[in-house]
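Why do we bother with holo predictions? Because pocket geometry can differ from the apo form. Keep that in mind while you read this record for magnesium ion.
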Amino acid sequence: MADDNKPLNFIQQLISRELADGSVTRVITRFPPEPNGYLHLGHAKSICLNFGLAEQFGGACNLRFDDTNPEKEEDEYVKAIIDDVRWLGFQWDGEVRYASDYFEQLYLWAQYLIREGKAFVCELNGEQMREYRGTLTEPGKNSPWRDRSVEDNLVLLEQMKTGAIDEGRMTLRAKIDMASPNINLRDPVLYRVKKRSHHRTGDTWNIYPSYDFAHGQEDAIEGVTHSICTLEFAANRPLYEWFIDNLPVPSKPRQFEFGRLNLNYSITSKRKLKQLVDEGHVSGWNDPRMPTLSGLRRRGVTPRAIRNFCDSLAVAKTDGVVDMAQFEHFIRDDLNDNAPRAMCVLHPLKVTLTNVPDGEVDMRTVAGHPNRDDLGERQLPFTREIYIDREDFNEDSSLSRKKFKRLVPGEWVRLRGACVIQANEVVKDDRGEIVEILAEMIPGTHGEDPPEGIRPRGVVHWVSATECVDCEVRLYDRLFSDPAPEAGDRNFLDFINPASLTVLSGCKGEIGLAEAVAGDNYQFEREGYFCRDTESGSENTLVFNRTIELRDNWKS
Ligand code: ATP
Ligand code: MG
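The structure, written out:
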């Protein structure tokens, strides 16, 4: 999948050098999601990068849940994340890992720091701690609890752990430098008291490690060589290194930062995505409008499209905003190559071909894909009554051929994969609505050019009215109508696109669509790319989600 001609990004360059000079022998990376929400497209960039490096350099990539925070984590998210990584086509090394597997070791290392005089139990409350911390321009002050004896610190830490100390009363802090220009080094918190049950360790612990105290040490335990994270962690790197340098860890991982993926017309923050779900703005984490991997999957986006897109992104030390159209280009490109073709009439208008005998079924054979023989052939029953799309007929026969390449009274169109027809008469109901077209087929035009003087205006899609399947079609569009729903102090909820979902019932699909399996992709000719929905209906109800239109019609 990786493009061999693409220049190496800065991490690939570095790894190539390290492998060449022997400073690294086997690359080990990890993807470390916090199980507090579903994965989104931003995570896919990180997944493709971490698993991709391992693949490319013959190393390994771990999947490790960062479950150090007992408040927000849920097993539902763990399951969904595992499914998503697998769906993208990546395989982690060994078992799935959990930060909580290392709680005991982290605790031993906290005791080690105390014995070394490098950690202490502090009784400042949150507000006092902020006061003592100082600011970007002013140094902080030492906590009055900084010089407790090793013995006292060990006893208090044990009491924090067993639940003898109330929440908020004490923390364990590293003893580094309250005057450091990097605020992360001003005696950061290693443990907090939290009397919460944990999804894996239950009530064993009454203290939980901070992200900073946990992350690098977990990497070290797993032998991770390159710990790759997003730019906002750059200022945490000196602290990451301080722990690695001051603890008897089994290996010395290093942290590298890259720019996160931001997409216009979208959001990539789990907190905000959760808000969309919790407040019912979407039907769930896997709503096909969501930029989550499960939403994209249900929408019909393939893992290949996502991986190709991620591979196209710069891995750089700056943040940028990627144009949604770039992602959509990869979705179309992939589906154009791989999705079988089918016809589905979204707004059916009946056409009766008066010179075709009632009951006659003429099976037409057409290609499953214009240039993929391996996708086989389809059978299209051609019958007296057919449907075309309402938008493919106009009563006004004076419309120029250039402007309206479809059917008008007295003139001709070609039915895709079948013959040329001529419209003769328009049938209307009491209210003047067009309900039917009476037309005739031009004999000898199945797959053949029409005789002199018969000039079809264009080609339209159609289905047999008697041999077809009923379906519901859901037209999805971008979830936000503004390119920057999160900019400044905007409330992203104000920019939800009111037309992001249009449901069409009573659509008519070609007979073969009855065989569509949930998750199957199609190009509905002239309409766009669609996918059979995975969640809705019984086996008898066919629901198709529009993945994307054939062309980029978005007007920004
Ligand atoms: P959020 O801010 O949405 O909660 P997060 O960074 O807290 O995201 P994690 O579960 O901690 O979510 O992320 C797991 C990994 O995915 C981290 O290494 C993180 O850097 C990376 N990641 C998250 N969002 C993006 C993004 N938009 N682009 C690239 N990588 C990302
Ligand atoms: Mg995070």
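The chain is about 25% helix and 25% strand.
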